[in-house]
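[step 3/7] inverse_fold.run input=structure_tokens len=240
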């Protein structure tokens, strides 16, 4: 018999034995709709053949009838055997949609873009120095607010005949915020102001809190004898 789903009109060809004589609840494999299917309507019984009065025949008529109406051989039809492993109306496992990986990556990219927009908006609203100030830091500019205080230069003759040239001083932070301490550049100039020797002094620490002071010192051997003036500056700034 042919079944048709009342929801999606999908049609199925199933044997009558699958429904049974008392009907059965079935489920559509396409839309999962269930309904009760009535048993197939039995075919009406064929009418009985009309009664015929056998004619009185002679021996010759019997021979002619036997020749003219021979008995047809029987036709054998193989019975339908429903496969044991197949049941068109057996309960199906719940449908699980396949995860869309492209959609997941789209969500991740959108979240990353939103985070970047929030960060840019914070920088525009607060400004880079404002953010650093909230963290207790300051942004280095072309000219540091730190100050240099140098002590008198010490020249000392060593026993081996070499001359020791020693420089010392302090780095002061007069500002109200923590500052980064850059390298200190020492320059020696002659009487005409011409640079004759220079080197870099590495500070003892790289950050200096508000109002604090740190010492620095450095020494060199056999600097040019015509060195008359010492100038100290932070690396990247003009000499002081």
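[step 3/7] decode complete -> sequence:
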């Amino acid at each position: 018999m042919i079944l048709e789903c009342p929801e999606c009109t999908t049609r199925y060809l199933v044997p009558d034995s699958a429904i049974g004589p008392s009907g059965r609840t079935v489920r559509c494999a396409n839309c999962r709709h269930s309904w009760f299917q009535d048993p197939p309507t039995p075919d009406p019984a064929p009418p009985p053949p009309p009664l015929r009065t056998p004619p009185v025949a002679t021996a010759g008529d019997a021979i002619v009838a036997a020749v003219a109406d021979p008995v047809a051989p029987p036709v054998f039809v193989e019975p339908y055997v429903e496969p044991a492993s197949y049941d068109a109306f057996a309960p199906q496992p719940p449908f699980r949609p396949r995860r869309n990986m492209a959609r997941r990556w789209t969500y991740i990219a959108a979240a990353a873009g939103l985070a970047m927009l929030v960060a840019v908006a914070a920088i525009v609203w607060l400004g880079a120095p404002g953010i650093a100030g909230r963290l207790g830091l300051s942004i280095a500019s072309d000219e540091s607010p730190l100050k240099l205080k140098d002590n008198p230069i010490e020249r000392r003759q060593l026993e081996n005949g070499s001359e020791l040239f020693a420089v010392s001083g302090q780095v002061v932070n007069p500002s109200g915020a923590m500052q980064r301490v850059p390298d200190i550049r020492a320059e020696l100039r002659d009487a005409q102001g011409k640079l004759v020797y220079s080197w870099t002094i590495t500070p003892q620490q790289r950050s200096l809190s508000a109002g604090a002071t740190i010492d620095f010192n450095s020494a060199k051997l056999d600097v040019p004898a015509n060195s008359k003036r010492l100038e100290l500056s932070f690396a990247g700034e003009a000499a002081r």
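[step 4/7] annotate
The first strand starts at residue 2 and ends at 4.
Residues 106 and 112 are 10 Å apart (CA to CA).
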